[in-house]
Every structure is written in C-alpha cells, then in structure tokens.
Amino acid sequence: MNLAKNFIASLSQKKHPDYLSRMPELAMAGILDHCDFLDVQRLRKTCHYLRNFIYDVKPDAKIINMNITLTDASICLEFQTRRKFQLEYYNDQYIINRITKKKRVLKYQSARQRFFKDIIYILSHQKSSFINFYVALNCSNQEKTSKEFLSILNIIFKSRSRPLSTETLGLRVSNGENILAILSCLEVKNVSILNANGFSTLLDLGTVAELRQWKQAKQIEIRHFLVDGDIFRKCSNLEKAYIQFAELRLEHVLMLRETFLSSPAANFFHFGFHSFTERHQLIEALGPPNSETSAVKNWFFRIPGSKEGVAVRLLSYSIDMTRITVPNM
C-alpha cells in the first residue's frame, strides 16, 4: 500500500516522466498490482506511457463486492476494493458520487449510457472473483424497463473473453427470465434470489434449471417466491438449500432424502411449503418416526457405509433435512 502511494507521489515530482518507459514491464506490472483501482485510474492521467500501458495490461481491479440497483429514477452502482465507491446515475442527466458528494452534469450522453460505458470499463479490469455480486430491480415497470436493462447487461457480460465469477450471486427480480439473463453469464457458487414484488408468486425456473450454473450451484436460496420441487432433480452438487414450495409432494421428500443418501455434498435443506396434501402418506413411505410430538415428527436414516446419517424433521409448514455425524455408528 505504501509502495503504491510513494510511487504516485514520485510521479508528481518528476519533470521527465518519460523515464518510466525505461522500467521493465514486469516491474511496472508488479507496481500496478499493488495499487488500488482508484490509484490505477489516477496513474492513467499522469502520462501517455502509463495510460497506454494500463490500457494494454489492464491490472486487476480486485473488486470484492459489486451492487447494481435499477430504480425508476436512477441506476446505483456500488463496488468495493480497499475503498468503497458509490455512484448514482440519475435520469435527469447527472451523476452523484455518494462518497465524495460531488455532482457531475452530463451534456452529451444520457445517464444510462454513461453507466453502461463505466461498467464496461470497470469490468474490463476485473480478473479476480467477486465475493458478492448483486443485481436488484427496484423499478415499477418490471416488464419493459427491467428487460431492456438486463438485456444490455447480458450482452456486456457475454462479451468478455473470460466469464465473471463470484462466490455469491444475489438477485432481486420478478421472474425467471430476469434470473436467466444474469445467471447464464457468470460463474457462481451460491445463488440467492429475492422476489422484487415482495410477495409469494409462482416462479418458473424451467429454463434456469437447465443451466450448468444452476446444476453446479453449492447453495440456493429463494425468498418470497413459490417454486416447483422438480427443479432440484439435477442439483447433484447442492450443499444447502432454503426454498419455499408452492406444493410439497411425497415424491419431492423421497427425492431429497435420496439426494442426501447418495450425494456426499448435501448438508442442509430447508423447504417451506404452502400445502402438503400427501402428508398422511409420509409415515407409510418413511416408516414410523423415531420421535414425534403433536407439532413435530423426526426421522433418522443411516447412510450406508458411512458414519453419517440424515435427520428429517417435519413441522406444520416446513421440512428440514440435515446431515449429521453419529459417533460409534
């Protein structure tokens, strides 16, 4: 960090910055690798040599988290390196930097055009993986405004030579098409989906469930949507899941139990449901509970050839499955 600051300070004191061109490219790249994203942007403005070198090399921006929020009035872009950045692009043709409180009026382009230009440039420097990447659609005209916005983001993401990657992808959306537009372009480990409409509506994930990213996800969380249990048949790598079913069926319970018994990845599943009409058939399918009260039924199933087992817990409107280790099994 001090090395980067000292290097920047030295540039302002030199009368002949062209001497930088004599520095070996490997050394220059090493110095830039210690610079924060903002430092690199400042260095670009010091001389033509550095501007061209940075353009060619594109030092990793090392962005940890990025949030993109679309509203009726603006687009908010937040991202974090060693510093925090928050830019708001308003439809009234101006940008506000929420960190510095500076306002910039746009004369020759719209705020939306400027946002897309900035996001293209910023992401061109992102080589490392994000920890969190979040897209939220908080606008009233979800059908038109969101669709157009996501279609452009989709093109930008797909234009990269190497896909963006993130530990967790967070989406605040209204339908499966919104999810498809973003998830199909990124490499993700965990997926978190929130209903932008704020209430439980049925979410069609038929096409999304065919994506490689969905099938390889380690954790899936879906809040305030109702889904069909069949979408989890191909999630062989799933470790954790937090889902609300529209209707839980007996075949779903048996399928999920089989996932735990056959897949070493499965760790914890929580499924809420609005209805479970086949509840009375559960004892016949799973056998008598190991323990039960008027509100809770508990089963335990040993995993063959393992010291682990699957605990199944049925409550009034949810069912949990947990992998547990039992000593001296």
Could you describe the 3D structure shown?
30% of the residues lie in helices and 32% in strands. With 329 residues, the chain is an alpha/beta fold. Among the domains are: 2-57, no CATH class; 66-226, no CATH class. Helix 6 (142-158) runs parallel beside helix 7 (176-183). The chain is elongated, with a radius of gyration of 25 Å. Residues 20-59 form the F-box domain.
How would the blueprint of this fold be written?
Blueprint lengths: L1 H12 L11 H9 L3 H8 L3 H10 L7 E7 L2 E7 L3 E7 L3 E4 L4 E4 L5 H14 L5 E9 L3 H17 L6 E9 L2 H8 L3 E9 L5 E2 L9 H4 L3 E5 L1 E2 L13 E8 L2 H13 L5 E8 L6 H5 L4 E2 L4 E6 L5 E7 L3 E8 L4
Helix pairs in contact: 6-7
InterPro entries: DUF38/FTH_CAE_spp, F-box-like_dom_sf, F-box_dom
Protein name: F-box domain-containing protein
Pfam family, one: FTH
Q: What are the salient characteristics of this protein?
A:
329 residues, alpha/beta, 15-stranded mixed sheet, two-stranded parallel ribbon, elongated
Biggest sheet: strand arrangement: 5-4-3-2-1-6-7-8-10-12-13-17-16-15-14
Radius of gyration: 25 Å
Q: Can you give the helix content as a percent range?
A: 25-40%
Total strand segments:
17
Oligomeric form of this entry? single chain
Please report the distance between the alpha carbons of the first and last residues: 53 Å
Protein name: F-box domain-containing protein
